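Bit of a strange request maybe. I'm writing a small parser for structure token strings and I need a real example to test against, not something I typed by hand. Could someone generate the tokens for this chain?
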Amino acid sequence: MPKLSILVVEDDPLARKVLGNHLGGHQVDFAHDAGSARQKLQAGGHDICFIDLHLADQDPASGLQLIPLAKSKGIYPVVMSGLDSEGMVKKAHELGCPDFYKKGNEETNVPAVLARYRNHRNAGAEDIFEDRFVTVEPGTRTSISEAVKYAASDIPVLILGPSGTGKTSLARIIHDKSNRPGEFVAINCSAYTEDLLEAELFGYRKGAFTGAAENHKGRLLSAHQGTLFLDEIGAMSLKMQTKLLKAIEEREFYPLGSDKPEKSEFRIVSATLEDLHYLIKAGRLRFDFFQRIHGLTIQLKPLAARKRDIFPLIAFFTRDGRRLSFTDEAKAFLSGHAWPGNVRELKKLVDLLSAGEQGHVTLDDLKKLFATALAEEAGDFASEEQFQFALQNGLTATVNRLVDSIIRRSLAENTGTKAKTLGDLRISTRLLYASLKRSNGGAGSKPTEP
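Reply from user aminoacidic:
Good idea to test on real output. This should exercise your parser:
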């Protein structure tokens, strides 16, 4: 964090020394009484002002009067007092003081105050809704603003929402607003097998397993003093949840093949499109692990629920290139689309439109692009004949039909050799003979090993 200019209004020399020690690394100025404090505040230039309300031989009201003066100069006022009276706290807040703490635990209180100041400063540093997370939808703006408020804390954040809604973008914003000196380190938990995920997270030493030709620094260590973003957290196995929970709680872990622990202080931000409460009930998510990752929960809406964002997003995506215009029919078409791929789908469409021959988009242009997209995705779907068969006969019958067809073809190519078909398709003898029984109209031999 950049060095701050801090004014401490405190008459007790020992208290000044203690506070000064905890503000080491920043530029600290002192005022011994309300009069000198007013002069320094009038001069301006400070970021934060710590104010002791009980200055020797002075009415506490004289300290309270420094609060509006500090605020008028754009200085963040913090009241500190040896007394913790409810009336005094109330009065300080009524005067606009955003922070109040009782003296005696500066080791904890001072870093917390500085973190809250960072939140205060970051809240107005930039309009994230214009160049980071574009949205005009009130509920989404409220959710994002809430996340930013907690950015400088160590509270874990859980981001929920369908694929393509901006979960990774929000995670990056939270990290950037946290002012943590470390890196933003992301990993998609669904993209790895259990063993590979463990190796990626914890790292490994040379020779730890076959193929470990050199030491590998894991994501936990890379995220030291930064943010570890766990995308698709619901895909993590129970075994990995147990190991990661231990690392989170102890801030210490062992890379694979090492008997020496590594230490890492990182903040957890996680995301998923799954219902975590359902996963807990189904026994696929440890409750204690869930407790560790969901300090603040943010729910992002699908684009279909925030259609007012469609055209602001299009303007954002084309801000550095060709600007697009749309006929009224084209606008109505986009507003009526279900957007199953959410913002990611819209971005892909905008890229296609921007690469086209003209920037004025008609309804026919959109229909052609959507038709092309559906044709490209058709390979991911069953054929029309298969789909109709499933509607008439059920999914089980459809799957059996496909299995029987593949087995018959394999047997034909292997001139009826069952052992070769079993090996080629990696299927059991029981499955083979069940298929043969169906293909022979119910007549079949008793399953035996070939």
